[in-house]
């Protein structure tokens, strides 16, 4: 039997995708709640606590609207509720997800301008400042930024983007996608002057897919009043007429029992400790990949050290080697599920997700298995990357 032949898997699959993520047992149990009327007072109490909890995780005291749907639904809601046909948006290029948010904007009849950026080095904030300063007629209605580009493993410094808006005195709304950062990386909606924050359930919140939401500032609510893009299911005005102030139709009650447990887990650990754990595990992954990169091995896709994502690492394959072959071996031979390269990065990168319900042994097991997969696939690398990760995790434990 060849080493790459599929085996009957035993033990738990190591799920190292950057979303959906591992669901803790206590959330799985919480989601397995019997059916309950979504207007039952017992559920309403849970529901109201969840909405307040999501606000604390978003670090906002403003409004939150929720949708049954994945992150794409909340992307659409973020736009149809504040814009009118032909409005101009300025999308910051980060990678696959900024491209897709921009494409959706175009589909909805919006004009899209882009602040171009290299996917490996990321936005030059001066270019954003220049684009805003040049827009003296204030045609740009909003700046859209993906906080954590899941396809490339790079973060955007949102506070610096806010400062660029303020420095130019531009009145544009500030829309951000926090889908792969919320609950993993520090995200401060109110402090950073974010007008619409788009989030989803299946990443840092460690829930099943299917619940998404938008944090909405008072300024965005004012824009909503004049917005003329067609909307019904996603309409915030329609939602405000309902008891839940969200959701047109049936509320996904079981996801809220899970969300209640998710918030409890995040707050039991403490958000700062959650962010520190993500930073620690991410650094272990990076030290391992940097070690592999010797001998012309795979390397970190993100080339900006101060913007490396703490929730996902994209690993660039050496020329002539296929990332999908490594992923296949990791999955079929070793039962580790890695993320693939998205869009134009297909086959060129694989991604190690390190967000959500994750600890040191899970990361070390994943890294060891990726190294074994590199070996099986015949990909050049400097062996022993896991030792670099072990050394770092031991150092961090003693600090
Ligand atoms: N934005 C980012 C940054 C993402 O990572 C994803 C999904 O991975 C999305 C948007 C789309 O979300 P969904 O797949 O939940 O629709």
Architecture overview:
The protein is of the alpha/beta class. It contains 13 helices and 14 strands. The protein has helices spanning 25-31, 41-58, 71-80, 96-107, 125-134, 158-168, 218-226, 236-240, 253-269, 271-292, 323-332, 360-377, 385-398, and strands spanning 14-16, 63-68, 88-92, 111-115, 140-146, 148-149, 154-155, 173-177, 196-200, 211-216, 299-300, 312-316, 336-340, 349-353. The strands form three sheets. A seven-stranded mixed sheet has the order 2-10-9-8-5-3-4, with helices on both faces. α4 (96-107) links the parallel β3 and β4 (111-115). The N and C termini lie far apart (46 Å). The chain binds pyridoxal-5'-phosphate. Residues 19, 70-72, 97, 146, 150, 177, 179-180, 200 line the site of pyridoxal-5'-phosphate. The site of pyridoxal-5'-phosphate (PLP) has 11 residues, from α3.
Name the hetero compounds present: pyridoxal-5'-phosphate
**Helical percentage:** 40-55%
Specify the overall morphology.
globular
Which structural class is indicated by helix and strand composition? alpha/beta
Uncertain spans: none
In whole angstroms, the N-to-C terminal distance is 46 Å
Fold blueprint:
Elements: E1 14-16, H1 25-31, H2 41-58, E2 63-68, H3 71-80, E3 88-92, H4 96-107, E4 111-115, H5 125-134, E5 140-146, E6 148-149, E7 154-155, H6 158-168, E8 173-177, E9 196-200, E10 211-216, H7 218-226, H8 236-240, H9 253-269, H10 271-292, E11 299-300, E12 312-316, H11 323-332, E13 336-340, E14 349-353, H12 360-377, H13 385-398
Parallel strand pairs: 1-13, 3-4, 3-5, 5-8, 8-9
Antiparallel strand pairs: 2-10, 6-7, 9-10, 11-12, 12-14, 13-14
This protein binds pyridoxal-5'-phosphate.
Pyridoxal-5'-phosphate binds at residues 19, 70-72, 97, 146, 150, 177, 179-180, 200.
């Amino acid at each position: 039997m060849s080493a790459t032949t599929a085996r009957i898997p035993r033990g738990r699959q190591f799920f190292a995708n950057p979303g959906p993520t591992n669901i803790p047992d206590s959330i799985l149990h919480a989601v397995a709640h019997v059916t309950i009327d979504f207007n039952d007072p017992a559920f309403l109490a849970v529901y109201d606590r969840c909405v307040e909890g999501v606000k604390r995780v978003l670090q906002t005291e403003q409004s939150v609207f929720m949708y049954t749907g994945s992150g794409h639904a909340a992307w659409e809601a973020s736009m149809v509720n504040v814009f009118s046909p032909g409005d101009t948006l300025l999308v910051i290029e980060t990678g696959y997800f900024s491209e897709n948010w921009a494409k959706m904007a175009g589909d909805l009849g919006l004009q899209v301008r882009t602040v171009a950026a290299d996917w490996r080095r990321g936005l030059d904030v001066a270019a954003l400042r220049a684009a805003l300063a040049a827009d003296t007629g204030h045609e740009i209605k909003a700046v859209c930024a993906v906080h954590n580009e899941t396809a490339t493993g790079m973060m955007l410094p949102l506070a610096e983007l806010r400062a660029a808006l303020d420095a130019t005195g531009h009145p544009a709304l500030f829309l951000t996608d926090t889908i792969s950062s919320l609950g993993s990386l520090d995200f401060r909606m109110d402090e950073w002057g974010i007008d619409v924050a788009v989030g989803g359930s299946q990443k840092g919140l460690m829930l099943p897919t299917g619940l998404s939401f938008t944090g909405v500032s008072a300024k965005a609510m004012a824009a909503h009043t004049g917005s003329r893009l067609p909307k019904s299911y996603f309409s915030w005005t329609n939602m405000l007429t309902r008891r839940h102030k969200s959701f047109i139709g049936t509320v996904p009650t079981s996801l809220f029992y899970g969300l209640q447990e998710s918030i409890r887990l995040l707050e039991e650990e403490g958000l700062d400790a959650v962010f520190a754990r993500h930073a620690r595990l991410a650094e272990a992954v990076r030290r391992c990949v940097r070690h592999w990169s010797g001998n012309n091995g795979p390397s970190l896709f993100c080339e900006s050290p101060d913007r490396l994502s703490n929730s996902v690492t994209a690993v660039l394959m050496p020329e002539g080697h296929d990332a999908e072959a490594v992923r296949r071996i990791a999955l079929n031979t070793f039962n580790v599920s890695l993320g693939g390269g998205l869009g134009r990065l297909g086959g060129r990168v694989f991604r190690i997700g390190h967000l959500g319900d994750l600890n040191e042994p899970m990361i070390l097991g994943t890294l060891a298995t990726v190294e074994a997969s590199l070996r099986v696939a015949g990909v050049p690398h400097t062996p022993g990357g896991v030792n670099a990760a072990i050394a770092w995790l031991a150092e961090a434990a003693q600090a």
